[in-house]
Write a structure and sequence with these properties.
With 584 residues, the chain is of the alpha/beta class. It is built from 13 helices and 24 strands. Helix 7 runs parallel beside helix 10 and helix 9 crosses helix 10.
């Protein structure tokens, strides 16, 4: 079982004056509201626009591992420090009951603070006073001990009294209980979010259950390194050293999303005080779980959306919306470095669909359920398609004058047996296909396929493609590759799915981190030298010679940037004598 350990401080220094100024400028805003990581995903902007979105009436189940086991029995030291000021008035329930006088867990206290913390009188010596407010400060939080949860709710099939399940625990291989967790997502349409693993620095491969097909897997975006250490409010990119990277052993794309994690978190050993969390997927996971709960709160307040969300496969609606609205960070690309696998690999092996953007996700949700005649520039749908492969479903959309890209995400569930050992049922699984077609006004009866996603392994398809010059009308097409064998014998004639789509003026999020060419978490003179090498002496870079090692360029990084140099070069500003790193 993987648990975060204390991370050794790394001797990074930011040599770029612009990044230092950005960090100092944002420091003032950090004094008023924490965790500042939530500002980075757009949550505080969302709360200003929709102050009612606090998670009220939504129950989140957090599965937390005991720190101590004796002869396999948990000693109940998995509990939040409910005496902390940020939990005053919070609705916290421990459904498992305490059989042993256990203790408090730093890990669980941190997750609880990120989710439901609220402290109007918070302060630290460095920041002074601030408002501490988690993602869902008014949500109900049910805290389960890990192995009791597995016994009661996976093995013995007891119902889960929650709409969102968050798990910052995992193991490096699939097991009966990780398949059972996936079965719960499919059977109960519950949104399940889990951390993908803490990267190569702690030798974490992809962790299950996050690596499971029906789970929203979350990676971590690193805090930027300032002269004072890891920033609380400036974030860089996800790096393989701290965020486990795909593909899975069976070549599926994971993670699904990334999020920052270096939040201020409540001290577990006192009734006040806060400290930084660090770069761990354990703490990026509740950010995504809480964001899913906010979208669910909004959807359930609308009778039409509520009916759709609560139907079979409705959990995939929230997953599709979160992924489709995510921000593509610098160097986002599908699959491997070579674009030849883009149709078969729907996601980036490090970023997934991108970094969660909760404000954009709300906009995507509020675009509302679409239909085949809607021609909306954004929307979503939850429906089912026949597994015979004989029919297609069409969604029309119109792009605006500023739109340059179309993004679409298709999600459905894999299927598992109801009882131990919860084996997969391959002949009940479906292989769906996603296409974007352009409608030429001069030849509307012959649409042009401009992009498609058709993985034989994943239960996610994702497209981010440029529009065609002079064409405003497009079609998104969902189809099913014919099922192997008889669909009726497999017990599934139809496959429920969720689809989200939108148009956007840009592919990538604005970011100065295009300049971090060697992916070491800093922007410095080594990156400037790396720019010159890629521009003028790329043939000398192979990842093994002294030049590559001096520039901290791994063979994988060299291959990636060499392959995409002409496409990404316009975003990089290291060729300029100006010390300001422009965001594009």
């Amino acid at each position: 079982m993987s648990n975060p350990a204390k991370q050794d401080a790394r001797p990074y220094r930011v040599l770029c004056a612009a990044m230092t100024l950005i960090a100092l400028a944002s420091f003032a805003s950090a004094q008023s509201r924490q965790p500042a990581a939530l500002e980075h995903i757009g949550l505080y902007d969302l709360r200003e626009a929709s102050p009612e979105l606090t998670g009220k009436d939504i129950t989140i189940a957090a599965v937390c591992r005991s720190l101590t086991y004796i002869a396999g029995h948990p000693q109940d030291d998995y509990r939040l420090n409910t005496a902390h000021a940020c939990f005053t008035g919070s609705e916290i329930l421990f459904p498992d009951q305490f059989t042993i006088t256990g203790g408090i867990s730093d890990h669980a206290t941190a997750i609880g603070g990120i989710l439901i913390g609220h402290d109007e009188n918070a302060s630290t010596p460095d920041l002074g006073p601030f408002l501490y407010e988690g993602v869902t400060p008014q949500a109900n939080l049910h805290v389960h001990e890990f192995w009791r949860f597995i016994r009661n709710h996976v093995l013995y099939n007891q119902s889960i009294e929650a709409s969102v399940l968050t798990m910052s625990v995992g193991i490096p291989y699939e097991d009966w209980w990780t398949r059972g967790i996936q079965r719960i997502a499919e059977r109960d349409s519950i949104i399940i979010v889990a951390g993908i693993g803490n990267g190569s620095d702690v030798s974490d491969p992809l962790l299950f259950p996050a690596a499971g097909a029906n789970i929203i897997a979350v990676g971590v975006v690193d805090a930027a390194i300032s002269p004072d250490g890891q920033s609380l409010d400036v974030f860089s990119l996800p790096y393989a050293a701290h965020s486990s990277t795909g593909p899975t052993m069976d070549r599926r794309c994971k993670p699904d999303l990334v999020a920052p994690s270096n939040c201020l978190i409540p001290n577990a050993d006192s009734d006040n005080g806060y400290h930084p969390a660090g770069n761990w997927t354990s703490f990026s996971t509740p950010i995504v779980s809480g964001s899913a709960a906010l979208l669910l709160q909004k959807a359930l307040a609308d009778p039409v959306m509520a009916e759709t969300i609560q139907a079979d496969g409705g959990n995939n609606v929230i997953r599709a919306i979160l992924m489709n609205s995510a921000a593509k960070l610098p160097f986002w690309h599908k699959g491997g470095p070579d674009p030849s696998d883009d149709h078969e690999s729907p996601l980036d092996y490090l970023q997934g669909a991108g970094m969660i953007d909760v404000r954009s996700a709300l906009d995507q949700l509020m675009a509302g359920p679409g239909d085949e005649a809607g021609k909306k520039s954004a929307g979503w749908d939850s429906f089912s398609i026949e597994r015979s492969g004989l029919f297609e479903m069409y969604y029309d959309l119109t792009v605006g004058p500023e739109d340059r890209f179309i993004e679409a995400t298709l999600v459905w569930n894999r299927h598992f047996q109801d009882a131990y050992p919860f084996d997969a049922i391959p002949n009940a699984d479906s292989n769906l296909r996603l296409e974007v077609r352009a409608i030429d006004p001069d030849d509307p009866d012959n649409p042009i396929v401009i992009d498609y996603s058709d993985s034989t392994r994943d239960n996610v398809e994702h497209i981010h493609c440029p529009v065609m010059d002079g064409i405003q009308t497009y079609q998104i097409v969902v189809s099913c590759n014919p099922a192997t064998g008889d669909p009726l014998q497999a017990g599934r004639e139809n496959e429920p799915f969720a689809l989200a789509w939108r148009t956007t003026p840009r592919l990538y999020a604005q970011s100065s981190w295009w300049n971090d060419l060697n992916a070491d978490g800093t922007i410095d003179d080594l990156d400037r030298l790396a720019y010159s090498a890629f521009e003028k002496f790329a043939g000398l870079l192979d990842g093994k010679n002294w030049t590559s090692k001096m520039l901290k360029l791994s063979p994988e990084r060299i291959e990636l940037i060499k392959t995409n140099w002409s496409r990404w070069k316009p975003f990089i500003t290291l060729d300029s004598d100006n010390t300001e790193l422009a965001a594009r």
